[in-house]
Design brief:
heterodimer, A: about 270 residues, alpha/beta, eight-stranded parallel beta sheet, four-stranded antiparallel beta sheet, 8 helices, about 30% helix, B: about 280 residues, seven-stranded mixed beta sheet, six-stranded antiparallel barrel, 7 helices, 17 strands, globular
Chain lengths: ~270, ~280
């Protein structure tokens, strides 16, 4: 009953695990599918192993609202192929989030992921605390990257949008023009937390991105605005913690929606 | 949930346990007034050393005033800075996180606590709890050398020779050999009795793996505390995921039972590094 066809991706449920959460090991991803998700998105994977920023890199600021600055830590596509192959043994849709340090490396990582059997690629051009954010804030760079990646792949390409821009619609339209099959809105919002006893930023990187409950109304507004202008599907994302949040995205807003499966930490 | 917020508190006290190991007492006075949740034996904290790093650490005990303790060994930048913290300096924490050791329901149970190195930390906390509830138990402590043994004076004061065994690999103190060897012979001896046997263990994973194998043969209630690299400590990042079941050490653990350990291919063999890459233990 909940079956959806998202730009050629056939999903048994429109709930997708958003990138960045639990998407580094095949066994955690499988547990998310067993819990009822229609697809999972991996953590962002790059051309080579990257340790990322030191801890503290994720913590809660208000109940259900987190800041993080992982700094794109990942094992690198060559080692991650093992996880893709393991997860594909369970035969459910897998979206691999990719980033690179050049158009060439974005394509290289995406092609390796496609070859390993993933069903769609999500382009991370919007991580607010790493260098890839520079693409997602520029409409021309977004257009050319999306065009070059989509023309080299045979599977759907989703583009994750950065909300830390003056005009998100302009960027989304560039992604659509470049051939994106869908957009994912929104990534985290730039944020910072300072400990008043030590007067130091708590995140090791200083600043990072805000996610969770606090950003949900912002995500709804961005998706609402995008819906008026885009022809391609929008995957709503941000602060979803219960079914009402999902319905809110769905209520006349996005074609499809997506939830961050924040585990119950109470 | 307040447990996942980072709070800074002052160091109330520090105590040298051996050359490279210290127990740090956190001043919890300010938080106690806010009805902050009390930790249970087996739970851990994410300890933030401002400007350096944040790492998971077992809670090693609670003092008479309800202040929490951790026991740290100098091994890297973060633990070195932690080791050198002085009274009144600030450190941050999140927690108590994870699950906890389950205490036996029957006072007649035979109970073993088997620890290696700084793995004694959560077992010290458990021993406080068991003692307060009038349980009798046998505590086994292992280390490579005499100078690496921790909590020795405290344990020797609290327990007698028949319920506290010390093992050093070089024989410089207590019995010579691995702690698992002494555990093996004690287990053989007690497995003949009809009382139910509980085994609690923490230490290097190779040691835990041996404890698991020995316990499996005689069918005991086993609970071990596992360690993995973590970013979030609350079930989000997946770095501490154990294949193929996907148990998360931070959320489903750190305490795992025999039944759970049996399902883990990674136990004693693999972990993930900070990038998420699977590596050998």
């Amino acid at each position: 009953m909940l079956d959806v066809n998202l730009s050629g991706l056939k999903l048994s449920s429109p709930i997708i695990l958003a990138s960045g959460i639990l998407g580094v090991s095949y066994s955690s991803m499988k547990n998310v599918i067993d819990a009822g998700a229609g697809a999972v998105t991996t953590k962002s994977i790059g051309p080579r192993k990257r340790i990322g920023y030191k801890n503290p890199s994720i913590f809660e600021v208000y109940p259900g609202t987190f800041v993080n600055s992982v700094g794109l830590g990942n094992p690198g596509i060559d080692d991650f192929i093992y996880e893709i192959e393991e997860i594909k043994k369970y035969e459910f849709p897998l979206i691999v989030s990719v980033f690179g340090d050049s158009t060439k490396s974005y394509i290289e990582v995406a092609k390796k992921a496609e070859k390993a059997g993933c069903d769609a690629i999500e382009l991370n051009i919007s991580c607010p605390h790493a260098e890839v954010s520079s693409i997602g804030i520029d409409k021309n760079l977004t257009y050319s990257l999306v065009r070059d990646v989509t023309s080299n792949l045979n599977i759907p390409v989703l583009v994750k949008l950065n909300p830390n821009v003056t005009d998100i619609i302009e960027i989304a339209l560039s992604a659509e023009k470049g051939g994106a099959n869908a957009v994912v809105a929104i990534n985290t919002l730039q944020a910072m937390v300072i400990d008043i006893n030590t007067r130091q930023p708590i995140l090791s990187h200083g600043s990072g991105g805000l996610s969770g409950k606090a950003i949900h109304p912002i995500a709804i507004k961005k998706v609402y605005d995008l819906y008026k202008h885009l022809k391609i599907p929008i995957i709503g994302c941000g602060g979803i913690s219960n079914f009402k949040d999902v319905i809110e995205f769905f209520s006349g807003l996005s074609h499809k929606f997506k939830t961050q499966e924040v585990p119950d930490y109470d | 949930m307040i447990k996942n917020r980072i709070k800074t508190v002052k160091v109330l006290d520090t105590k040298i346990e051996c050359k490279d190991v210290k127990t740090i007492t956190l001043n919890m006075e300010g938080l106690q007034t806010q009805n902050y949740p009390e930790p249970l034996p087996g739970q851990f904290l994410m300890i933030w050393v401002p400007g350096i790093d944040e790492i998971p650490m077992s809670i090693s005990g609670i003092d008479d005033e309800g202040n929490w303790q951790i026991t740290v060994k100098k091994v890297g930048d973060c633990t070195k800075k932690l080791f050198n913290l002085e009274k009144e300096e600030f450190l941050g924490f999140r927690g108590p996180l994870g699950n906890n050791f389950s205490i036996p329901t029957n006072q007649n149970s035979k109970i073993f606590l088997v620890g290696g190195g700084t793995g004694l930390a959560p077992l010290r906390f458990l021993s406080q709890k068991l003692t307060s509830e009038d349980f009798e138990f046998i505590l086994l402590e292992g280390a490579k050398l005499k100078k690496e043994l921790i909590y020795i004076n405290e344990f020797e004061n609290n327990f007698n020779n028949s319920n506290f065994y010390i093992c050093t690999e070089d024989g410089s103190y207590g019995k010579k050999g691995l702690v698992t060897e002494t555990f093996h012979s004690l287990l053989n001896e007690y497995s003949k009795s009809k009382n139910k046997i509980y085994v609690y263990s923490c230490g290097p994973e190779k040691m835990l793996y041996e404890v698991y194998h020995l316990s499996e043969r005689v069918n005991v209630e086993l609970q071990v505390s596992l360690e993995r690299i973590m970013r979030c400590g609350c079930g989000l990042c997946g770095l501490c995921s154990i294949d193929p079941v996907g148990f998360l050490v931070c959320k489903d653990g750190p305490i795992f039972t025999m039944k759970q350990l049996k399902k883990m291919d990674d136990f004693g063999k693999f972990k993930r590094d900070f990038s998420g890459k699977k590596i050998q233990i």
